[in-house]
Amino acid sequence: MPHHDHVRLRPVSEKDLDLFERLHEDRAELGDLGFFGYRNPGQLRRQWAEHGFLTAQGGRLTIAGDDDRFVGEVQWHEVLQGPASPCWNIGISLLTAERGKGYGKRAQRQLVEYLFAHTKVNRIEACTEVSNIAEQHALEWAGFTREGVLRGACFRAGTWHDMVIYSVLRAEVVAKT
Fold first, then answer.
1. Per-residue DSSP letters for 77-116?
2. Which fold has domain 8-176?
3. What is the pLDDT of residues 88-132, one digit of tens each?
């Protein structure tokens, strides 16, 4: 499969919303690792209308591929590792047809660079199920270090699943750029 070097992150626009909703509400699109039960229909559009998916506590950006087309989204939210120690936890969702083409690893690396450039956090973390080997490789390519396994941390499809936690620190990205 071809790998795409042209990846750009941008705010979610109105033209993205149909595919954005499909990415989060269509069980077939979500696949085995992405379906966590049905959600409130229309909630994503209401959130977009209210604050464009960008707040001080987190956000979502469109992953735009060739010709600025929507291929997925990255997201982040604040996590406290100590009373005065916020960090970001990031996630990614790609349309099924766009997986395995290199968009994910490049988008996650761009998100890390963006968050370190525009926020004061020192740590960015990401978790994925232990069975999601593709995402683990993408995180490692993007500069993350595997820290360990969070046992029984994710409830999906009626059972608890182990998660792998990764992180990247500000100094590690500054040193590499």
1. EEEESSTT-EEEEEEEEE-GGGTTSSHHHHHHHHHHHHHH
2. Aminopeptidase (3.40.630)
3. 999 999 998 898 899 999 999 999 999 999 999 999 999 999 999
